[in-house]
Amino acid sequence: MTNKDDITVCRCADVKLSEIHSFIEDGCTTLDEIKRLSRACMGQCQGKTCRNLIMQELAKAQKITMEKLQASTFRPPVVTIPLGSLAEEEPDEK
Amino acid sequence: MKNRASVVIVGGGITGISIAYELAKRGMKDIVVLEQNTLSSGATGRCGAGVRQQWGTEMNLKLSIGSVKRFETLQEELEYPHDIEFSQTGYFMPAYTDKQVDQFKKNVALQTQFGLKVEWLEPSECRKVVPIISLDGLMSATYYDKDGHLNPFHTTQAYAMACKRKGVDIELFTQLVGIKTEHDAIKAAITNKGVIECEYIVNAAGGWSQIIGNMAGVSIPTYSERHQILITEPIEPLFRPMVMSFYHNFYTQQEPNGAIIMGIGDPNEPKEINYGNTYRFLHKMASVVTAVLPPLKQARVVRQWAGMYNMSPDKTPIIGKSPIKGFFIACGFSGHGFMIAPMTSTLVAQMMTNEPLSIPEVETKLDLGRFERGELFVEPSVV
Fold first, then answer.
1. In the predicted model, is pLDDT for residue A94 greater than 80?
2. CATH assignment of the domain containing B189
3. What does the DSSP assignment read for chain A?
């Protein structure tokens, strides 16, 4: 049987469901707060999997629906790019 | 929300929250912190997270040494159940010009007087500390192994949880829209959710401090300047200390999880609040960092973001009283607010409770009045 506390929510930063619950217990009510404290949504995939899972937990805790919650920002460059490639390409100076 | 308080603190970053904690610790009651977004959503949560003590003036040495001492035991003091991730992996500061070498020599002499065991490294010794550094143009470097970094989100959260246990009210998503004064004294804070009558208002609003000053009729000569920053995906450990080059105007550090964080200043940045991200930054940052630390070419960028430095005319904080009675200022940190927050908050709380100051000269050297008196504070070691 899977222990509920061992469920991985964010694979990039290896964040478990139990950690999400502990930040909610500490008083977090927004995805941004949990993102910043847990590093979930900040890894290579930028939260493509964990964003909805965490918002679901936040919605449950506050007894509201998920659309009431603000999603987190997807940061550029969205897909990872090596520094070496970025160093080569001059920006368009206009 | 309360409609009466003794103190209203504007800003839920590290400075505002730590001031609330220091006041509560000294027994002050009815403290309210206003934050327009979530905790550390401004400069605190966007910063490079470094903590350095290698400064070039007595004032900044005192502020930073006192703060690092506090960081060393902060997690226990605040009884925080998570980790604030404080680690002392050092700052490595390379010099590339004769002028920088001379300045660093003076700095090290002063730092040594203050008991810091800062190491002077010749180029041949630099790779012992930063194995991947290019020796091109490198003339010497300084390294102090007790500088370091910690997690800004957890540090702010740790202070905030301790504040709440002491009865401080932290009002998120609450914006200050006006300040009521009477006979040049604070009367009330007007927010988008109601009015709070109070005796004191503390302006710890970072990038918005000049706007908050105007609400009280106090002109604060700070301005906001965007600084961009990026982080790579985690890779194998390549270097431990923060590498900070005044010559290239950049800093970079590998975090405990292996991700590499880096930022670079842009001298043409306009004076405004702007959270936009640019490709120009990615290119500039990548070109400079891969020239100085060539193996980073392989590192893949995951995210870029921007934050505001709240700049003061002499790039030194403004801490103290103002012409309006009860209106205190802690702003203009010019990119260094996070690292000295423990001392800033202690000093502000000491001023507000009429205790002797840990650094008495703050009152006459870092006050707002210095700009009118023409007594600018000159720190030779800032990016």
1. no
2. 3.50.50.60
3. ---GGG-EEETTTTEEHHHHHHHHHTT--SHHHHHHHH-TTSSTTTTTTHHHHHHHHHHHHHT--GGGSPPPPPPTTSS-EEHHHHHHS-----
* pLDDT at residue B288, as a whole number: 98
Say whether both B227 and B131 belong to one domain.
yes
Distance CA B208, CA B310 (A): 8
Nearest-CA distance B137 → chain A (Å):
20
pLDDT digits (tens, 9 = 90+) for B71-116: 999 999 999 999 999 999 999 999 999 999 999 999 999 999 999 9
Spatial separation of the C-alpha atoms in residues B27 and B13, rounded to whole Å: 22
- B383 has pLDDT over 90: no
Copy the structure tokens of residue B194: 């109601």
What total number of domains does chain B contain? Answer: 2
Q: Over 90: is that where the pLDDT of B304 sits?
A: yes
Query: Rounded to two decimals, what is the model's pTM?
Result: 0.95
Helix or strand holding residue B345 (H, E):
helix B337-352
Residue B354 reports pLDDT greater than 60: yes
CB B327 within 8 A of CB B186: yes
- Give me the pLDDT at residue B156, please: 98
- Identify all chain A residues contacting B154, using CB atoms and an 8 Å cutoff: 37
Mark whether B241 and B366 lie in a shared domain.
no
Q: A24 to chain B: which residues are within 8 Å by CB?
A: none
The domains located in chain A, with CATH, are 4-88 (1.10.10.1100)
Residue B115: inside a domain, yes or no? yes
The length of chain A, given as a count of residues = 94
Distance CA B160, CA B78 (A): 9
Q: What is the dihedral of CA B248, B102, B144, B255, to 10 degrees?
A: 0
49-78 in A: which are within 8 Å (CB) of B? 75-77
| Enclosing H/E stretch for A84 | helix A83-88
Judge if B293 and B249 occupy the same domain: yes
In chain A, which residues have their Cβ closer than 8 Å to the Cβ of B257?
Answer: 13, 39
* Predicted pLDDT at B301: 97
Specify whether B227 is located in the same domain as B365: no
Residue B80 lies in a domain: no
Whether residues B132 and B232 fall in one domain: yes
Exposed/middle/buried for residue B182 (C-beta within 10 Å: 0-12, 13-18, 19+)? exposed
Q: Residues near B26 by Cβ (< 8 Å), separated by ≥ 6?
A: B349, B353, B355
Domain hosting B334: range is 7-48+152-222+314-373
**Amino acid in the structure at residue B100:** Q
